[in-house]
Amino acid sequence: MSAMAEKIMKRVRAKGRGWVFTPKHFIDFGTRGSVDMALSRLAQAGEIRRIGRGLYDYPRLHDKLGALTPDAEMIAQAVSAQSGDRLAPSAAAAANRLGLSTQVPARSSYATTGRTRVSKAAGRSVTLKHSRAPVLGNASDAANGVVQLLAGLGRDKVDADAISQLAARLDGKDVQALLKGRTQMPGWMGDVVLKIGAAHHG
Q: May I ask the CATH architecture of the domain 3-67?
């Protein structure tokens, strides 16, 4: 195994099985060409698996089933890293995660700062939809999920009940991230965030 491949595998093992990655994740190791070559050799050797164009994973293994399909969220994160876009849960996923809806979103769909597209990897389809709402940097999925959820609900559908429910579900760090991100949001959404903050501290 080349020195480059050794370095790549060290990082891959540190991330653990199930990680989905792109050549961009190793660009600090050397030229893009040398990274591509090392990844291609590692895939041929069966150390990692190529699951799509410029996408690889370090598959989780099952005793009877062998290599498992990668997690949709891992694929979405890798695709976003590939294009340098930010990723957030879709409004439907956020509503489910934050307890405002019991419906589990059927398809793996995410909001992105990039263009709308469907990525296929290892037989799984992941939809990335361009978000009209901002995706905050340095904010958790929960905080960004709230932004997408508010955008999905729209100005007139956010009632006191939803505000108190969101305030109860978020931790202090998420509320801080939302308050800090108000400058990027439409005015009405920033006002809702202020109310969530007040209810959280109330």
A: Orthogonal Bundle (1.10)
